[in-house]
Each structure stands twice: as C-alpha cells, then as structure tokens.
Write a structure and sequence with these properties.
Blueprint lengths: L8 H15 L36 E11 L3 H25 L5 E8 L4 E10 L3 H21 L2 H15 L6 H13 L7 H9 L2
Antiparallel strand pairs: 1-3, 2-3
Helix pairs in contact: 2-3, 2-6, 4-6
Length: about 200
Amino acid sequence: MLVVGNFEPAEAVDAAQQVNQMLKSQPLPPHSHMPSRMVNIEPGHYIYQHMGEDPNMLNNAVVATFYCGMVTNPTDRTTMALLLQIIDDQFFDQLRTKEQLGYNVGASTNSFSSGKLALKLRVEGESNPTYLLQRIDSFIYGFRQTLVEFDTVQFDALVESIVGKANEQLTSVDAEANRMWTPIDEATYDFAQLADEVESLQK
C-alpha cells in the first residue's frame, strides 16, 4: 500500500492497518503468485510474427525492440534517457513525415520484470510489415552517423534539459504518487533512482 500526502509515518501505518482489517486480506499462497514469464534473449536478431484475426484488416504494426542495459544501473537508465531524447524526433520525422509509412510512429523505453531496459521503435500503418522493418533497420544504421556527429554543445544542452525536467517541482500529490510508484512497479524499490540519475548525468 502506497500512502502519499501530509501523513506522519505512524498515520500511514495506521491507515494501512485499517484498510487491511476492513478487507480482511491475506497473503497469496505460493501457487497463486504469477511467475515471471520473461524469456532470456541472447544477443542476436529475432523476428516474431503474428497474424491478426481479421483477414480484411489493412493495418499492420512493427515494434523493433533493442535491449540496452539494466534498470538497476543508473548509468544505463540515463544513457537510455539521452538516447530517447535524440532518436524520438528524428525517427518520427524520417518514417512518418518524410516517408509517410504509418499514422502511429514513435520511440519509447520499456523495463521488464527481469530488470532489462529496452528501446522500442514502433510503426503502425498500412505499409507491408516486412518493408517497415527494413526501413527501421535502415534508420538505425543511418542514426549511428548522427551520434558520431553529435557535438559537445548539443550534448550539454540535452543533459541540461533532462536534469531540469528531473528537478522540476511536482505540482500535485498524483504526480508524486506516480513518481514513487515507478520503482514499485519495476520491483526495484529504489526511491532515490531519480536523484541517482541526475548525479550520473552531471558527472
């Protein structure tokens, strides 16, 4: 139970106990715990194809996933944040604006119960999925040159932007709860991870 707001520790514990007594909750037996179904994917190139249930559906989707570190490592998390900031706009501009390959194009990050971090590039539209994957691969190969040409001034500005956003004062209890829920959801319980990321960025 997560209690957020103007509570003393004793008040938070009392509120949790009252809820527990009203619901008469009990710990789940071992056989009821959901096991982690994450597959340990070795380095390589894998393709999973799934045919939609409606044969008349014209839309296709491709999600390219790149495993890029561990969620428990502050350096991996900050590297991922920097990479996402750089790649997101360029990916959208190339595949959506210039090539018109889909209506839903973007980059995002994801963490898994195994602790792995991933960068995801997605394209949804009517284009052939094999062709979409080829264009994503082509973009990635071209993006390497973007990283090579990324100068110190651009990098420092990007770091400053991410640090500024991380240090923004939260304006609501809901925002504070969402920030605290992230390490709970990721099962790291590292509530200082944002401060660790800022420290890693500033090194």
